[in-house]
Design a protein that fits this description.
CATH class of the largest domain: Alpha Beta
Helix content: 40-55%
InterPro entries: HAD-like_sf, HAD-like_SPP, HAD-SF_hydro_IA, HAD_2, HAD_sf, PGP-like_dom2
Distance between the termini: 29 Å
Strand order of the largest sheet: 5-4-1-6-7
Number of domains: 2
GO molecular function: hydrolase activity
Radius of gyration: 16 Å
Largest sheet: 5 strands, parallel
Number of helices: 8
CATH superfamily of the largest domain: HAD superfamily/HAD-like
CATH topology of the largest domain: Rossmann fold
Pfam family, one: HAD_2
Structural class: alpha/beta
Organism: Acetobacter conturbans
Protein name: HAD-IA family hydrolase
Length: 198
C-alpha cells in the first residue's frame, strides 16, 4: 500500500486487523459467559459486536438481561480461553506484509481495545511482538474505542503528532476512534485475506 510522504508513524489495531482472532474470541466468550455467567449467547449476537471492548460487551449484556455479571471472572476466563486457542490464530497476510515493509522505516504501534496479555500473546504467535515501538491496550486508557484515547496515547508514546499518523482498522468503532483522534485511517476489511464467520 502507498504511504504518503507526510506520514510519520503507522498504528495498527490488533484483533481483526493483524490477526483473525474473531473465531477464538467467539468460542472463548460463549464458553466463559455460559460457565461463569449462566448466559447462553448466540454467535450472531457476539459477531455483530466485533470491535467492542470487554467492558462494552458486558455492559450491554447486563443491560439486556437486567443482571449483574461477575466481570472479573468472565474476563479472566475469556482471556484464558483465547490464549488456549492461539495455536490456530491466523495472521492477516496483507496487513502483516505492510508491517514488515515499514518496520525500521517508520515508528510502528499497536492500539487495541483488547487486554495486554492477549494482544501480546497474539503478536508473539504471529512473530511480530518485537516489531512495534509501542503497544497500547485497554488497560492504558479510561475510555475504549470509539473514544480517541487509545490512538492519542499511541501517538504520544511514538513521539509524533496525531495528524501525522496513519491508522489501520477493521471496525466501525476503531475507525471512529482514529477519526476523533485527528488521524487518517484505512479500513482493512476490503483487502483482508480472511473473512471471519461464526
Amino acid at each position: 500500500m502507498w504511504v504518503s510522504a507526510d506520514t510519520k508513524a503507522l498504528i495498527f489495531d490488533c484483533d481483526g486487523t493483524l490477526v483473525d482472532s474473531l473465531p477464538l474470541y467467539l468460542a472463548a466468550w460463549l464458553e466463559a459467559l455460559k460457565t461463569k455467567g449462566g448466559l447462553d449467547v448466540s454467535p450472531e449476537w457476539f459477531v455483530s459486536r466485533r470491535g467492542y471492548s470487554e467492558g462494552m460487551v458486558l455492559s450491554e449484556l447486563e443491560k439486556t438481561h437486567a443482571i449483574t455479571l461477575n466481570r472479573p471472572a468472565i474476563m479472566a476466563a475469556t482471556r484464558e480461553g483465547v490464549r488456549q486457542r492461539l495455536s490456530s490464530v491466523k495472521a492477516n497476510a496483507p496487513v502483516v506484509a505492510l508491517v514488515r515493509e515499514w518496520a525500521g522505516r517508520l515508528p510502528l504501534a499497536v492500539a487495541s481495545s483488547g487486554s495486554r496479555e492477549v494482544v501480546e500473546a497474539e503478536l508473539a504467535a504471529i512473530g511480530l511482538l518485537e516489531t512495534f515501538s509501542a503497544i497500547v491496550t485497554i488497560e492504558d486508557v479510561t475510555r475504549p474505542k470509539p473514544a480517541p484515547d487509545i490512538y492519542l496515547l499511541a501517538a504520544r508514546r511514538l513521539g509524533v503528532t496525531p495528524e501525522s499518523c496513519l491508522v489501520f482498522e477493521d471496525s466501525t468503532e476503531g475507525l471512529e476512534s482514529a477519526r476523533r483522534a485527528g488521524m487518517r485511517a484505512e479500513d482493512v476489511r476490503p483487502w483482508s485475506d480472511f473473512r471471519s464467520a461464526p
